[in-house]
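Hey, resending since the last one bounced:
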Amino acid sequence: MKHYLKIFTIIAALSTTFLFSCSKNSTDDLHDVQLCLNKADAGTAMGCVDKISGDSSPIAYSLRCTAIFITQGYGSAASFVNALDSIGSGSTGCGGSCSSTVSAINALKFSAAGIANVTEWDANIASANEAFSQCSQADAKIYTQIASLFKLGTLAAMTAYKLSIVAPGGTPTETDIKNALGSLDDATVGNLVEVTYSATCQNTENASDSTKDYCTQLKTALDAGSTDTQIGSCLKLKLANPSATCP
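The structure tokens again:
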């Protein structure tokens, strides 16, 4: 199918057990939204989830998460798989000096609003924030991991434009992303670490290698501090230089 999160599908979320726990009207609405998203494109996906705007069930969050990614134009499954698989593969970008996660977040970023000016950059960041908010409350752990990486990637890329590390409309390199990461707000990054680790990393015995590697990085940051600011500062430092020691 055209969109990665359609390939990811919401079949697991729409489990029989969950459906039986919902009222008939609620179940019908969720099913209708799924069918709508199966045919949606970037221009129609958000309209599909209007009828469940007040639904706070995990499956509703999954559906809204999916809609945001479809709206952003993602994408082929291969682009996600390759980016996730790059985590833990060793430093290949930034002249070999930064974490391989930088390669992943450079590939995973929102830019559907455009990349020419501050208004467009801020719109992309807002979309990444909303995706993380919705996806981190969904019932599929991988949604949180992907949204976490997209938020980091989008924040770093749009910051690279704002700081003129990259010219408006240009394409950031991994070194550009590494440099922009240093300017991200420590507390924002730290909160992302805490939410992602809590949602994704509690039981990774049967998880993919990329998830295990990402969770290891998050755990290192969590162990380095007791506040969002300290945690975020550590992750940024380790992304820029995996051999660095957090204070």
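The chain is about 60% helix and 0% strand.

Sorry for the duplicate.
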